[in-house]
Amino acid sequence: MIVVIKSQTPASEVQRIIQELHRYPVTVEKVVSNDKAVIGLLGDTTAIGRENIQQISPFIEQVVRVKQPFKRASLEYRYGEPSEVAVPTPNGVVTFGQNHPLVVVAGPCSVENEEMIVATAQVVKATGAQFIRGGAYKPRSSPYAFQGHGESALGLLALAREATGLGIITEVMDTADMEKVAAVADVVQIGARNMQNFSLLKKAGATGKPILLKRGLSATIEEWLMAAEYILAAGNPNVILCERGIRSFDKQYTRNTLDLSVIPVLRTLTHLPIMIDPSHATGYSQYVPTMTKAAIAAGTDSLMIEVHPNPAKALSDGPQSLTPGDFVELMQEIAPLAQFFGRGTKSAFTNATPNLAAKISSTVGV
Amino acid sequence: MIVVIKSQTPASEVQRIIQELHRYPVTVEKVVSNDKAVIGLLGDTTAIGRENIQQISPFIEQVVRVKQPFKRASLEYRYGEPSEVAVPTPNGVVTFGQNHPLVVVAGPCSVENEEMIVATAQVVKATGAQFIRGGAYKPRSSPYAFQGHGESALGLLALAREATGLGIITEVMDTADMEKVAAVADVVQIGARNMQNFSLLKKAGATGKPILLKRGLSATIEEWLMAAEYILAAGNPNVILCERGIRSFDKQYTRNTLDLSVIPVLRTLTHLPIMIDPSHATGYSQYVPTMTKAAIAAGTDSLMIEVHPNPAKALSDGPQSLTPGDFVELMQEIAPLAQFFGRGTKSAFTNATPNLAAKISSTVGV
Amino acid sequence: MIVVIKSQTPASEVQRIIQELHRYPVTVEKVVSNDKAVIGLLGDTTAIGRENIQQISPFIEQVVRVKQPFKRASLEYRYGEPSEVAVPTPNGVVTFGQNHPLVVVAGPCSVENEEMIVATAQVVKATGAQFIRGGAYKPRSSPYAFQGHGESALGLLALAREATGLGIITEVMDTADMEKVAAVADVVQIGARNMQNFSLLKKAGATGKPILLKRGLSATIEEWLMAAEYILAAGNPNVILCERGIRSFDKQYTRNTLDLSVIPVLRTLTHLPIMIDPSHATGYSQYVPTMTKAAIAAGTDSLMIEVHPNPAKALSDGPQSLTPGDFVELMQEIAPLAQFFGRGTKSAFTNATPNLAAKISSTVGV
Amino acid sequence: MIVVIKSQTPASEVQRIIQELHRYPVTVEKVVSNDKAVIGLLGDTTAIGRENIQQISPFIEQVVRVKQPFKRASLEYRYGEPSEVAVPTPNGVVTFGQNHPLVVVAGPCSVENEEMIVATAQVVKATGAQFIRGGAYKPRSSPYAFQGHGESALGLLALAREATGLGIITEVMDTADMEKVAAVADVVQIGARNMQNFSLLKKAGATGKPILLKRGLSATIEEWLMAAEYILAAGNPNVILCERGIRSFDKQYTRNTLDLSVIPVLRTLTHLPIMIDPSHATGYSQYVPTMTKAAIAAGTDSLMIEVHPNPAKALSDGPQSLTPGDFVELMQEIAPLAQFFGRGTKSAFTNATPNLAAKISSTVGV
Question: Which fold has domain D85-363?
Fold first, then answer.
């Protein structure tokens, strides 16, 4: 249930209303407070009459029941106003949200060594992208496959940040590692396979760090938003939703099926910002540029793209990684498209450096 | 197996090579003949040595085995050159293909009466779209639902064409109706539920008319191309592939899942032109504009969009139909996007007429 | 809407009630008439008051609205009484239904020649099975694959029936072939790919022949029952529903996923008899015996099992065909299981003949 | 790679062979040791020549490369011999395995209070079943739904064991809870949503406790076996695989689709014992008895069935829970079926007590 306060209500009256609402056996939260305050009531509100709330103050514009099972994640809960996730990075605050420029996250599947992660970060930085990604802990279907370098890889990510000023996004797989990961990462990723690892979601909620929540391979949109709700309910409003392809009956030519229609659907359901990951979705680097453009046209707030200095020698997910050269080219190609949709950046990918990319591609061995 | 002839080979020599090839117990087809002739050999070519073919003439550049099971539909078969489907309409020839402007097909799910189909066609025409769609024969899951007006609706479509000069696309469901439908339609549609109705595919191949082949609800890309192969193998090269959403585990917010990644995948597999139908894919008109833009960004050659003068009263598929006003707005919005991608039309949707649209929306009762 | 008449109501009164009901603008059908007459009203019954009907006669026990969209196929429509499909064969009438012995249909994927179909029929007959199956018209994903021998194969099936007294089940794919197929077949099969070929369903309804309706690869149970409703609505009550595996995300070890839970689900929804086809469902003969037993334990009314004299040389679907020897063994194994569940036959597979099977396996070349 | 030792090889020679094998840079494990020793070599064996191993001793019968990616879980690794998981309970050791009687696990979705869990355990015990299940930690899609009573519920399960002698199966969701859960549970369950929670799998491997590994909602069979491999690779050979329904396109009548064909498929791939959970698979108690019978006919080694004293008031998953009365009836019904398949128990469900069941159903409020 939300209580919408009229514009220009005196702050003291808003305060008084909140105090009155605290009498009810529910949680009271201030939700939106720009030009219009909205107050959320959470818990069992079935016994609370809307008229009773309305009578608290003439400054109450409306009392609305949130019908969706995902209360805090719902668009209704913020009275239709999109939320944004602002992430401080050495290069400045980067904001994910509908009314902000497109944010690009790029990097290798896993952090393999210092040289490759720093070199990749330099290319990523040079294109105007804002975050470097790279797995320290890797979910691999085989116990005999490379599992990531773990804690030491977190250190290498920090070095890459130092060298470039980019923010870091990396995945956490175990509640026991949450503190370590959150200490280094600027955004903590919860992977598709852990989307319904509810212990991890609760812990992610408790850190307060921005969380990137990937959609599970066969998660419905409602289940995905309920997973986000776990994080929000634990007190962390900084959640970004990332579509990375769903599992379908046809895996012959793509690894997963990129469900781009989640973008318009999510816009009607939730205020949370959206990211699209065309690399995992398609599984093949040759399809990434096209799906990146489609994602921008569909209105995504951000992109996650895999880049590796030498995809053929990558320790994981090589086939879906762009080379630095291809990545630079893609960033140049999408810059005017983002502008077209009013989502361009000031620096706008314009100082991209194909030479650097080519140099890295040719010299970095992994 | 294809035989690639060198550029500027004398026509008589090409003729001689073809004659030589006729000695083998296979079908010989001239495939591409712009600057470079390519000759296809179809049938059991396993016993034919590539060197033996090569020795026929010094003008043979290369002999290549087509590895895909869909021989004629494969990109290899045309040596990488996209095909195009040119459709004569009263307003002139409209060509579907990668090197041509975006083609837009629009109209109601089913032809309900003369007034509505002609009025809708007028709006469609006014926006610069080139085809009117409308079902005469309707595949409906219930035998008690409206099944389409059948033959008489074909006549109404012809009236709409007369009134506007638009081409007609309409569906055939029964081999027994093929002649009747092909006599009126400019493009004959085979619907998703009939994608593996092999009798219908063969008949469609025999007509020679351009065929719009919708992807089955759970058809793999390979099965879809094999269905196209049925039409091609029957001697009809005019096939357009239409993605209209696949069936997934989540049907709560969209009717199907639009698989836009078929576009880059098909570009690597086939020379055939592509259409995207965001109306059936999403099932809700509110998601159509966003997915239309995404489809253009992904490089579709054409679009199929449902428009109805009064969606709330439509005899079928109302929820996914745009109003004339919304359609005009969408066409105006996508015109610069098509231009951006070099797929704009000369007339470029510029003489769109919101007034006409509004008038139709308000006056046409169905 | 159904009108339930009290037991022992005089026939003349039932007649009078029916006449009264004919005044309403709906179709009136006598549905069940064993100990209790039930009369169905079909069409738009929303305007008809239940009380008005009730007042027609004191012999009316109850007036019930059928809530399911599949009216005639619903269990409600027959007031909970299962229907049965009785098929005359040279060996006598074979009845498919819940209160009848298990019916077994077996044979090759396609009719390849006289020797193989007659020999297979002899093995099938020897095991106590009641029907020979075999495709004359074959739906194949490739136009270059064997398409069935067509009309001539129908003749061979008739020869096999003559030689053994077995009934024949064979598939129709084209409305144009319906008469030819129905003239020979005892049960006409509509395949999975044609489950929503509505023209074919209507034609199948018009023949009056028993129809075996296979579930589409991604058809929901409701869509399947609506497809059955097409046949029933065309006046043909003789429909058997055949589950043959659905398409899922995992095709590595089985071709499809056998959805056995349709059995208990269908029992709550429909009165129609059920068949299970473990051969198409699993795609590999080694899994067929286990799934056959599971199907019997789940209560199937009948089974369809592929048998081929020489699976390795089969023109289609060899990997999923049992050898005659394996089939005989399976029939011996399941006889006591069918007995266990009260679904044994009189002849009960006891005169099975492994020698004949072995002889056929070793001598018939295909 | 496995090294198969001839029968009746002297133990000292086996010892010597193992010592020789330790020279290679791989892990050496004794795998099977009944009548025939089999020694497994794990790690990168590509550089090891089979002939070199063969030359170590004339008592080596065969050296075989394990082709499957799931090495220890593969049937090849045990040279075709099924493994068994023996679980000590107060009532004696219960063994899961192909050559052992059917094991039945039953109980409520979650442990709600002492009375209900003890009462349910008494019914379960009375029917001859061997394990009580009940969730202390519950994975729930909503953060606002009942999350289980956690640690205190583990204590209640221990009380139920004390009262009945049954073994306990309960789920762990967080690596941090593994010790607590393993200290009480006789079998530790890893739920479907955590099947690819690799941190949890590794921890489960380290405990050495028997692990029940549920298949993920959209996990392929290979992914499932790879998840088992994580546990086996961590040194824990006691893994039971539980199929609980997969996610398909049709969720109208069942919650999931029970994939019973995993039973014959797994028999060709792995030595691990199998459990079927018809309660979660169908989601509705009315379908549970039928699917239970089908599972037995398909050869399952064990069953997991939800029972609740008062399903209508259950805090979770009520619709899929049997009442005690229905459970007793089901156990009576399946006893002869298990016997039929040679999987009956000595006590064989014969001392079932409908009165007790009825009493519990009527008196226990939750």
Answer: TIM Barrel (3.20.20)
